[in-house]
Amino acid sequence: MSGGVPAAGSALPRSSEGGQQSHEEDDRKVRRREKNRVAAQRSRKKQTQKADKLHEEYESLEQENTSLKREIGKLTDEMKHLSEVLKDHEKICPLLHCTMNFVTVPRPDALSSCLPR
């Protein structure tokens, strides 16, 4: 300490009035810092909860997507099977080869005229 100037962080001598004012400022700073710390903690907690909720929603959507893909696969297989059954049926169905199918006649008449007697 040269020149009578106190080092940084050392306490300056205060008058009783100046000391009271400085003490109040210090208290205000401490309260403000604590308030900011609590607000930051609350904000982080809120962000964490929001992220957790989004992650849960994402997981749920992924499960639903997987389930829907599985269902699409099953339906695709069923469609292929039914298409094959229909093709096989079309080969042997007498109604598809009947000339009456191309005439506009009420359906029951068309059916009875095409069926073997």
UniProtKB/TrEMBL annotation:
GO cellular component terms given for this protein: nucleus
Keywords from the UniProt entry: Activator, DNA-binding, Nucleus, Repressor, Transcription, Transcription regulation
Domain annotation BZIP: ranges: 26-89
Superkingdom: Eukaryota
Ranges of Basic and acidic residues composition bias in the record: 49-58
Alphabetized GO MF terms: DNA-binding transcription factor activity, RNA polymerase II-specific; RNA polymerase II cis-regulatory region sequence-specific DNA binding
Pfam family, one: bZIP_1
SUPFAM superfamilies: Leucine zipper domain
Disordered: region residues: 1-65
UniProt cross-references to InterPro entries, sorted A to Z: AP-1, bZIP, bZIP_sf
Protein family: Belongs to the bZIP family.
Name this polypeptide is given: Basic leucine zipper transcriptional factor ATF-like 3
